[in-house]
């Protein structure tokens, strides 16, 4: 008897509400639901996904004799090899990812980059730029996934405690991409950020990436920058001069950088023709930085001085 | 002689038309190929048909037998047919441990391993299988149709708990209600995609009035179990849609534009049921 195998599928139907950007409203045509990508080349979809490797299918609705659209797919900044195939009135983009693409990520951020846009009339809306029609995203984990949720309570409690005792907000981010020889540089301006109880109306974050190493400087207006660096091996050194609690707040800010980057993408990619390779390189760099900061936080909370001993209402102090 | 472990109910139509790409009608051949594909060691099929159709069901393959259906479908939906409760009840009556329903235009390409996998899993809950749509009988691969379930398998004891009154085979909504009814009972439901459940694409066979009538039938079942619906966590939009559909179903003569409203809201509620069921979605390879 030939062996049969069961694989768990996670289905994301674009007819429903989605988390992400770069999609037109949902439509239903001939019993097939979809959303057009657009108006820019770049579309983002964030979904929950178990950690580890897996594979997926993006189902694209076609209207014959439409060719299969040229779409690049990224997961958390990692470009995925895409194999397109036609399946009746659908196109299927097959892809897979490895452990690294989901390492340390709390959810999956898929990017879709449409090579071509075209202008089509929308009912009672005039012309609009569209790329491709995404109907469903079907994801399958390579592993069976976690078994009993033995650590779930501790994780939930821990996250709530950190949000309560070490709260940070990145606020609204603006980005400028630069280069200096082989180094990539990113100027990130944060508006309405918060470190602990202290509002930070303007923060200037300067990143410099060279190979796998990353240097960063974070400054409030009129003050000296806090310098930090992450080695190519992922070891992070925090700035000197901060109190124990403020050092951890600084680390928490770094863990929030991928989220700030994603929020900026949602806002900035509307009509952009982006350099997706550059964007993905920075997404990976910020994810590595966030993982390093999480590791440092965990080690500090476990083995360092009690960061929760002081007054949680005490303001964040910038070293002078 | 092998023990019958799975009994499926269906209703083979007296005739079947399926225009092929070249223009010829491959319906009769497809109808025969479907019927020939169902039975296997341990698997039997009952075709439950109105009495006047039984004479057309000649030369059925081994393992497929015809039985008379209970009356009343023609009066309710305007054409002869089979009640779902009758079909499922006939399968339950055989005493098989796993029972189910297969639509008559589904062809199985299931080897023994996949049949065993389906049967073993169906001992623990409802398996609702999407069909793979083909453009012509020789096509190897096609897209799955996610918004319908053409093969359902379940434990006999679970089938006896379902309330399928008011639904007929061949009329929409019964496949959604059977899943929703099970979920409202707290019973396990899984959606399965398997390339061995194959269907030849055709235009929708049902008419709008029958679609709306069956929707009203479903909402009449949902309304008294509204509190249980909240327990499924379908979300505020799904619940509000159900409330509106139940109100329209209770007073369909209230005027413009209730039938249009019901059609749109019914479509939305249908895909909400699909989403709910797909919380447990599996591929069988």
Structure description:
The complex is a heterodimer of chains A (320) and B (285). Chain A is α+β, with helices and mostly antiparallel strands and 320 residues long. Chain A folds into two domains: 10-141, Jelly Rolls (Sandwich); 153-303, no CATH class. Chain A is 22% helix and 42% strand. Chain A contains five helices and 21 strands. Chain A has helices at 99-102, 152-165, 244-255, 257-268, 276-303, and strands spanning 6-13, 20-21, 23-29, 32-37, 42-47, 54-61, 71-75, 78-80, 82-87, 90-97, 108-114, 118-122, 126-130, 133-141, 168-169, 172-180, 183-195, 198-210, 213-219, 226-230, 236-237. In chain A, strands 1, 3, 4, 6, 9, 10 and 14 form a seven-stranded antiparallel sheet that branches. In chain A, strands 15, 16, 17, 18, 19, 20 and 21 form a seven-stranded antiparallel sheet that branches. A five-stranded antiparallel sheet of chain A has the order 2-5-11-7-8. In chain A, a hairpin with a 2-residue loop joins β7 (71-75) and β8. Chain A starts with 5 loop residues before the first strand and ends in a 17-residue tail after the last helix. By secondary structure, chain B is α/β, with parallel strands linked by helices. Chain B is 38% helix and 20% strand. In chain B, α6 (174-184) crosses α10, α7 (208-222) packs across α9 (236-250) and α9 (236-250) crosses α10. The longest helix of chain B has 20 residues, at 258-277.
């Amino acid at each position: 008897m030939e062996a049969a195998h069961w694989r768990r599928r996670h289905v994301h139907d674009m007819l429903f509400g989605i988390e992400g950007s770069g999609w037109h409203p949902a439509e239903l045509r001939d019993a097939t639901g979809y959303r057009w990508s657009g108006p820019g080349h770049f579309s983002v979809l964030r979904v929950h996904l178990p950690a580890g490797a897996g594979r997926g299918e993006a189902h694209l609705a076609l209207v014959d004799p439409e060719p299969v659209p040229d779409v690049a797919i990224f997961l958390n900044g990692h470009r995925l090899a895409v194999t397109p195939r036609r399946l009746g009135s659908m196109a299927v983009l097959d892809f897979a990812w490895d452990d690294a693409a989901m390492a340390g990520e709390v959810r999956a951020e898929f990017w879709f980059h449409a090579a071509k846009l075209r202008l089509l009339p929308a009912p009672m809306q005039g012309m609009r730029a569209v790329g491709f029609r995404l109907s469903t995203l079907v994801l399958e984990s390579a592993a069976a996934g976690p078994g009993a949720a033995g650590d779930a309570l501790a994780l939930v409690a821990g996250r709530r405690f950190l949000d309560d005792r070490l709260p940070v907000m990145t606020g609204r981010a603006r980005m400028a991409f630069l280069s200096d020889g082989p180094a990539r540089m990113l100027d990130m301006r944060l508006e309405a950020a918060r470190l602990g109880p202290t509002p930070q109306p303007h923060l200037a974050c300067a990143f410099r990436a060279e190979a796998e190493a990353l240097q960063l400087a974070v400054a409030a207006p009129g003050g000296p920058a806090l310098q930090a660096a992450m080695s190519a091996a992922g070891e992070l050194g925090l700035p000197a001069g901060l109190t124990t609690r403020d050092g951890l707040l600084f680390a928490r800010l770094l863990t929030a950088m991928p989220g700030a980057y994603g929020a900026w993408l949602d806002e900035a990619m509307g009509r952009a023709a982006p350099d997706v390779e550059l964007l993905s390189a920075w997404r990976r760099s910020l994810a590595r930085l966030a993982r390093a900061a999480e590791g440092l936080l965990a080690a500090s909370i476990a083995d360092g001085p009690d960061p929760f001993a002081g007054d949680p209402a005490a303001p964040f102090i910038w070293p002078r | 002689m092998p023990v019958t472990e799975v009994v499926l109910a269906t209703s083979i139509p007296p005739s079947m038309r399926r225009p092929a790409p070249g223009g010829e009608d491959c319906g009769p051949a497809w109808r025969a190929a479907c019927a020939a594909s169902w039975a296997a060691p341990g698997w039997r099929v009952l075709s439950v048909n109105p009495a006047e159709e039984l004479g057309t069901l000649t030369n059925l393959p081994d393992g497929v037998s015809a039985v008379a259906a209970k009356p009343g479908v023609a009066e309710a939906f305007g054409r002869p047919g089979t009640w779902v409760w009758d079909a499922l009840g006939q399968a339950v009556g055989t005493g098989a441990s796993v029972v189910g329903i297969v639509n008559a235009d589904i062809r199985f390409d299931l080897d023994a391993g996949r049949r065993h996998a389906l049967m073993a899993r169906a001992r623990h809950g409802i398996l609702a299988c999407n069909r793979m749509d083909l453009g012509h009988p020789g096509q190897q691969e096609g897209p799955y149709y996610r918004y319908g379930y053409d093969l359902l398998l379940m434990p006999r004891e679970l089938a006896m708990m379902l309330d399928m009154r008011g639904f007929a085979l061949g009329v929409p909504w019964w496949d959604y209600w059977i899943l929703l009814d099970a979920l409202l009972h707290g019973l396990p439901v899984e959606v399965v995609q398997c390339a061995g459940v194959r269907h030849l694409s055709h235009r929708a066979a049902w008419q709008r009035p029958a679609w709306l009538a069956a929707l009203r039938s479903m909402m009449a079942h949902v309304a008294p179990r509204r509190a249980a619906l909240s327990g499924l966590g379908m979300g505020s939009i799904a619940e509000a849609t159900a409330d509106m559909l139940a109100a329209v179903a209770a007073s369909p003569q209230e005027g413009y534009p209730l039938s249009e409203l019901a059609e749109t809201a019914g479509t939305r509620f249908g895909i909400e049921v699909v989403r709910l069921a797909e919380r447990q979605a599996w591929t069988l390879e």
